[in-house]
Amino acid sequence: MAIQPPIVQPGDTVGVVTLGSPLESEVIDDRAEYLASMGLNVVLGTHVYDWNGFLAGSDEERANDLMEMFLDDEVDMIIPTRGGVGVAGILPYLDFNVINNNPKWVSGYSDITILLNVLYQYANIITLHSLMLIDFRATTPNYNFDAFFSVVSSDDMGGEIVNPPEGPALNGQVPGHVTGPIVGGNIVSFTGTLGTEFEIDTTGCILFLEEVNEPMNTVYRYLKQLEMAGKFDDCLGIILGQCSNCQEAYGQDYEDLIEEFFVPLGKPLITGLASGHGTYKAAVPIGATAQLNGDDGTITVMSEN
Fold first, then answer.
1. Which of 24, 33, 88, 295 has a Cα-to-Cα distance from 180 of 20 to 30 A?
2. What percentage of the chain carries pLDDT values higher than 70?
3. Among 210, 211, 214, 275, the one annotated catalytic
């Protein structure tokens, strides 16, 4: 069973790091101020403002910032500023034994999902597919904050993952029910680690996927690569989030790809989870055991305590 990190309470400290692409300093400062206004202390990584082309400093510098946050007893939770690209580059520099001995919540989506899954696979800690620093602003829906804090601030993270009341309900597209740990996140990020020691392991797991800003012919390419790598054969069931701002191509849309890749598997399938790059972001604990019920379209996280 994976380790659930300690709860985060008002007055606790959040370590902010930039692990992939850079973010403007004024945006970092603004979002950090908003996070602090929610009753949390904020400390910034040494290289949080670094800007080196499309990366925020070297791979080793970004990895060192993350490790320093795990080693700092005053830091209770770690939040990346954004995703972008380049998160895979920090992985060889991480000490997973140290991380295992100092479990802390790490939250994010987009390219950060590479890290979330690797921390589960190599350090056996539960991570959270949820908010990043860029999301801490007044325009973020309350649903997102409620979902985030309901996990990181509770001894018992068990319960049903639901879409916001104003959004569509989850859709049980293929019936059946399975129980296993949830893994997954951003589609394109995972294709970039295939063939490496850090590729996602879906064996015996519930696979969750989402994507953004890609035309359907490109999404097809990514899904075909994951399919040929055996990731769909190895998993127990599938949860699909949105393909946010993904454009039709050659007359095909996202639903066509779902029908081509996932429905024929015959595995329990739920679609339409509000998550990741969409406006509404469900909090999906990576590594936590869940029950997926394709009969009634429900996802229930089991208590780890």
1. 88
2. 99
3. 210
